[in-house]
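Summary of Year 1 activities. Much of the first year was spent building the evaluation harness for sequence design. The harness presents a backbone, in tokenized form, and records the residue chosen at every position. We chose the following record to illustrate the format because it has been used consistently in internal testing since the harness was completed.
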């Protein structure tokens, strides 16, 4: 599952996981150097499955790792085993899918001595969404202080997921209240999500 920051977290199967439904025809196999192998699997969902998108992943890893020995120069040697894994995501859908993204919160925080815009979003739809967005930062007198992109690339948010987008600001903002205007473009939705919120910075 994706965390709020977008990292991949390994969790036990939840209500949106199709991992328990996956059946392999074999779990161990050999691939010769520069060779290929077809791996067949079946997905057997329960009969009472509700509409929506479900996901999981297949992880491939070698039975034996590559061992390399290192010398620290002080007479000590270390054997380190390297294991390379490959993760193949799987998505499945049932019935009609709806897409709905909601804005939760915006704030300006000081991170590593730099002002940072933090925007929190939640996916209320039945499937994953891909989004990007822009912002405008305005002071209480109506002067625009900064505008820019929230993200440099399209961001993925899974069903029932939350994402927190952190955008460093170039403006040296002081303590006080500001207005932030957000425009979120969701690939799966026809209209952008437009939000205006008053936020405060306390140093």
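For this record, the design step produced the sequence shown next.
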């Amino acid at each position: 599952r994706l965390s709020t920051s977008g990292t991949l977290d390994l969790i036990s199967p939840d209500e949106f996981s199709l991992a328990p439904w996956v059946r392999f025809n074999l779990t161990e196999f050999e691939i010769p150097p520069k060779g290929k192998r077809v791996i067949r699997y079946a997905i057997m969902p329960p009969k009472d499955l509700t509409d929506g998108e479900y996901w999981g992943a297949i992880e491939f890893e070698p039975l034996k790792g590559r061992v390399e020995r290192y010398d620290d120069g002080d007479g000590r040697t270390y054997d380190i085993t390297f294991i390379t894994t490959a993760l193949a995501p799987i998505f499945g859908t049932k019935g009609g899918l709806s897409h709905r993204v909601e804005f939760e919160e915006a704030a300006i925080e000081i991170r590593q001595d730099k002002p940072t815009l933090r925007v929190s979003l939640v996916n209320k739809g039945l499937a994953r969404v891909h989004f990007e967005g822009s912002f405008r930062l305005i002071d209480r007198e109506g002067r625009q202080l900064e505008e820019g992109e929230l993200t440099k690339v399209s961001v993925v948010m899974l069903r029932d997921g939350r994402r927190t987008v952190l955008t460093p600001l170039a403006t040296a903002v002081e303590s006080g209240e500001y207005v932030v205007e957000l425009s979120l473009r969701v690939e799966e939705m026809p209209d952008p999500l437009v939000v205006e919120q008053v936020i405060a910075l306390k140093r």
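The two ends are 34 Å apart (CA to CA). Quantitative recovery figures across the full test set are reported in Table 2.
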